[in-house]
Amino acid sequence: MTDSMNSTRPTGAPKEPAAHSNVAYANPGGIFASCGKSYVEFRRRHAPTVVDYLAHLGPSSARVLDLGCGPGTLALDLAERGMRITGVDASQEMLDEGRTWAMQRGVSEAVEWRCADATTVGQIDGLGTFDGAVIADAFHWFDRQRVLMALDEVVRPGGFVAVVGYRAPETQREWWHPLLVKLREKHLGAADLAGPSTPYVRLEVGHEAMVRASPFNRVSVLRADYRREYTLDELVGLQRTFAYSSAATLGEKQEAFEADLRSTLGILQPSGLFATTLQAAVIVGRRPDSR
Fold first, then answer.
1. Tell me: the pLDDT tens digits for 76-94?
2. Could you give the count of Cα atoms lying within 13 Å of 189 in the half-sphere of its Cβ?
3. CB neighbours of 115 closer than 8 A, spacing ≥ 6?
4. Backbone angles phi, psi at 218, to 5 degrees
5. Tens-place pLDDT, residues 22-79
6. Residue closest to 137 by CA, chosen among 36, 234, 280
7. Nearest Cα to 223, choosing from 182, 150, 178, 169?
8. Which of 249, 268, 261 is nearest to 190 (CA)?
9. 257 contacts: CB under 8 Å, gap ≥ 6
10. Pairwise CA distance, residues 109 & 83, whole Å
């Protein structure tokens, strides 16, 4: 694990990033259509090192906003550590799964759910203010500049914004990643889609640069190695949780895609066990006057 502390105290207004730094999808609530149940079953929770780090960013029983919360993959872990969470997601399907999962894990009273576009958090009635906000594996789906400005309205003085990624930029991917790209291109004609029939917009400006250009421009970064292991069934099921290979995106091609995936992975790894080491990243931004 490494904890890289890089602080800046710029003067004047935050500098606006270069072009191609933001994206706004027409139907954010439809990006992960059909993914809810599979997300709970097959998406792995964040590494304990990451969750513990986040749990200590704010005061005891901190009130934290989770933007793009999905079914609560991170929110419920933080709730189990004593935080009071408000999860916001554009997908009602994801929120419904989250409520069920929270009940199963005994943290329903610690989590509130709101269906909304992340850019509108400053306009949600009765939302209130927060000790901090987390965005886990979702920032790339947002108009990041607008979201950070909206968070400036709802995060209290001294509060934080934490952008969490399961894989840090410029670090190795799973060894089977190139295979998945080729199979999506084969069956869909495109490797990256933002849900059914919607092209994914690849951003040219990194998340850290966006945070540094926001009001939360005193930045620290945590990087932590962790290991992931999957069975063949788990790895196939995991693909149903991604916007670019969900049941809704694949449609009638899903059966052929998954059969092709099983066959190819089975040949490459006859044991049926798939393991990799990844490096997670947490980018934490605070306002320059925060202590």
1. 999 999 999 999 999 999 9
2. 5
3. 29, 88, 89, 90, 91, 92, 95
4. -100, 105
5. 778 999 999 999 999 999 999 999 999 999 999 999 998 999 999 999 999 999 999 9
6. 280
7. 169
8. 249
9. 183, 184, 187, 188, 239, 245, 250
10. 11
